[in-house]
């Protein structure tokens, strides 16, 4: 089972005639059993991409292939694609089992068959003890799991998740990430998970596609995108903190991650003044304005090494922690 998107282009004409290129030539592939995370800021085209794969949005150009079959013109109902939204809307008057099976029942599958399938999926997702409950007897996380089960019960060829964890708290989000991975492992379908949350993309994705303004800037493993961002834009947008960028000579931009920038009291490096110190868990975020620079740089340092605002410091980094990008 696989998903391929080729040269997807979609333009919206807004009310006053303004044009928005929501997808500007997107190529993407989710391999069998792969969890691909599409990450990008709001408005970068993530939802449009998912909706196009699901068949809820037509493309101006490009193709969508599922299991090597061109489904570009195929209506949503005949694509075998499951789509899970942020708001796991369950039917409040139906028990969990009925909620999971309702789509299949609506498609005319026989009751016995649906019941068997619901039980199989519930077992895989550890939902068996909850099958008899009503939605208002479930926690937020359990509701999300039921929504996932409802998506998987149809044996989709591709499963799409649109910010499914956006509205849940941190603790639950961590647990739900594990759930999503478990679903993926037990069903082996390619999953495309859309989020604006960098940490989620890093934690969850077998690969991540970094999107901005309707384009995929880079698509690779999280470790690779973190270690070798393809462009300055990726470096700014992917990682726990945006990478520091410093203009260098000849149209080259230097980049150093805040977690690799050292703030020293003395020694060789770039002198500057501490502008701000902000606690961040075990560590501090320190802003330093290098002498003669317009833009301050961010460093993440242990509490014990944190300087005071106004202090004179020297910024240093190891050559291997330096990235280089074209200014263009
Ligand atoms: P994301 O999911 O990354 O937030 P979207 O795919 O929702 O981004 O939107 C991409 C761009 O397309 C945005 O600028 C958005 O305003 C625009 N857009 C999305 N849907 C429509 C629509 N139906 N009509 C007009 N513009 C739209």
Automatic annotation (TrEMBL):
Superkingdom classification of source: Bacteria
SMART domains (UniProt xref): AAA
Coiled coil: none
GO molecular function: ABC-type ferric iron transporter activity; ATP binding; ATP hydrolysis activity
Keyword terms: ATP-binding, Cell membrane, Membrane, Nucleotide-binding, Translocase, Transport
Any one cellular-component term (Gene Ontology): ATP-binding cassette (ABC) transporter complex, substrate-binding subunit-containing
ABC transporter domain location: 8-238
PANTHER family: MALTODEXTRIN IMPORT ATP-BINDING PROTEIN MSMX, TREHALOSE IMPORT ATP-BINDING PROTEIN SUGC
Name of the molecule in the record: ABC transporter
Organism lineage string: Bacteria, Bacillati, Actinomycetota, Actinomycetes, Pseudonocardiales
